[in-house]
């Protein structure tokens, strides 16, 4: 089995490397400054650590979902329609997982690293906390209790995250009618913005319809300023992974308790200025 999986993993990594290289060339030729050398290496180091963490926590994640799957009163059939249902359900769950991660300080501790990138490019997609696998499966317990096959849940979540890799780029502009249904690079750039108008917007993974249904959608209407409102954090991968937890245990009431701007105080100030 390992011999079968190994080559495919290498092909995927090569494909990703080609895309990143193409984006770097585009950024250089168009003078877009989408890449910073130190930040890019930091992203790659974080990516390596995240890949290791997947092996470390894989058993735990499957055990959590497997345990609750056994408690389900029924099990849905394994067919294409059930997989589609599972995929949509997983995306709906991801929306709320992601949204709560912006508003609840303990989850923001895991998520802060992803929004600390000062540049939007494909390598920023894997600026993910090495310990996020501890909490993510807990949100998918409802899907297991609804009788959805465990492997369908896992595959749906993996595909969801894989899709989001392609959203972290400035190459692709507005996609017209697609913007009304799917999460797109334009919508996701908004999500990473520290502009007051972009704060806590566009949480969707694959579909943007959840944001439109629950009032968190914002179109890209002005140039996006990336990163936290508190500014640059670090290019040290260990500092990046730990920063959110350090803030959490210090129990500070800082702007970083919410997401990319993450500051309730800033929101209130903006509202007062408008009124």
Automatic annotation (TrEMBL):
<protein>
    <submittedName>
        <fullName>Sterol desaturase family protein</fullName>
    </submittedName>
</protein>
<keyword id="KW-0560">Oxidoreductase</keyword>
<dbReference type="GO" id="GO:0006643">
    <property type="term" value="P:membrane lipid metabolic process"/>
</dbReference>
<dbReference type="GO" id="GO:0008610">
    <property type="term" value="P:lipid biosynthetic process"/>
</dbReference>
<keyword id="KW-0472">Membrane</keyword>
<dbReference type="Pfam" id="PF04116">
    <property type="entry name" value="FA_hydroxylase"/>
</dbReference>
<dbReference type="GO" id="GO:0005506">
    <property type="term" value="F:iron ion binding"/>
</dbReference>
<dbReference type="InterPro" id="IPR051689">
    <property type="entry name" value="Sterol_desaturase/TMEM195"/>
</dbReference>
<dbReference type="GO" id="GO:0012505">
    <property type="term" value="C:endomembrane system"/>
</dbReference>
<feature type="domain" description="Fatty acid hydroxylase">
    <location>
        <begin position="83"/>
        <end position="216"/>
    </location>
</feature>
<feature type="transmembrane region" description="Helical">
    <location>
        <begin position="12"/>
        <end position="28"/>
    </location>
</feature>
<dbReference type="GO" id="GO:0016020">
    <property type="term" value="C:membrane"/>
</dbReference>
<keyword id="KW-0812">Transmembrane</keyword>
<feature type="transmembrane region" description="Helical">
    <location>
        <begin position="80"/>
        <end position="97"/>
    </location>
</feature>
<dbReference type="InterPro" id="IPR006694">
    <property type="entry name" value="Fatty_acid_hydroxylase"/>
</dbReference>
<feature type="transmembrane region" description="Helical">
    <location>
        <begin position="48"/>
        <end position="68"/>
    </location>
</feature>
<keyword id="KW-0443">Lipid metabolism</keyword>
<feature type="transmembrane region" description="Helical">
    <location>
        <begin position="130"/>
        <end position="159"/>
    </location>
</feature>
<keyword id="KW-1133">Transmembrane helix</keyword>
<dbReference type="GO" id="GO:0050479">
    <property type="term" value="F:glyceryl-ether monooxygenase activity"/>
</dbReference>
């Amino acid at each position: 089995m390992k011999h079968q999986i190994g080559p495919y993993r290498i092909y995927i990594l090569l494909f990703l490397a080609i895309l990143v290289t193409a984006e770097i060339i585009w950024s250089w030729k168009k003078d877009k400054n989408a890449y910073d050398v130190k930040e890019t290496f930091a992203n790659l180091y974080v990516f390596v650590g995240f890949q290791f963490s997947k092996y470390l926590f894989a058993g735990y994640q499957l055990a959590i979902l497997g345990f609750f799957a056994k408690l389900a009163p029924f099990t849905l059939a394994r067919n294409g329609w059930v997989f589609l249902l599972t995929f949509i359900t997983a995306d709906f769950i991801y929306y709320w997982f992601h949204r709560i991660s912006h508003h609840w300080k303990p989850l923001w501790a895991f998520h802060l690293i992803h929004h600390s990138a000062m540049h939007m490019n494909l390598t920023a997609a894997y600026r993910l906390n090495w310990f996020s696998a501890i909490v993510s499966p807990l949100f998918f317990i409802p899907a297991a209790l609804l009788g959805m096959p465990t492997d369908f849940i896992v595959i749906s979540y993996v595909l969801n995250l894989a899709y989001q890799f392609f959203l972290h780029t400035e190459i692709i502009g507005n996609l017209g009618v697609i913007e009304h249904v799917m999460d797109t690079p334009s919508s996701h750039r908004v999500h990473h913005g520290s502009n007051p108008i972009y704060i806590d917007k566009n949480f969707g993974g694959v579909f943007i319809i959840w944001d439109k249904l629950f009032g968190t959608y914002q179109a890209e209407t002005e140039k996006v300023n990336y990163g936290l409102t508190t500014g640059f954090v670090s290019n040290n991968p260990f500092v990046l992974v730990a920063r959110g937890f350090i803030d959490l245990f210090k129990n500070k009431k800082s702007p970083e308790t919410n997401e990319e701007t993450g500051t309730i105080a800033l929101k209130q100030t903006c509202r007062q200025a408008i009124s």
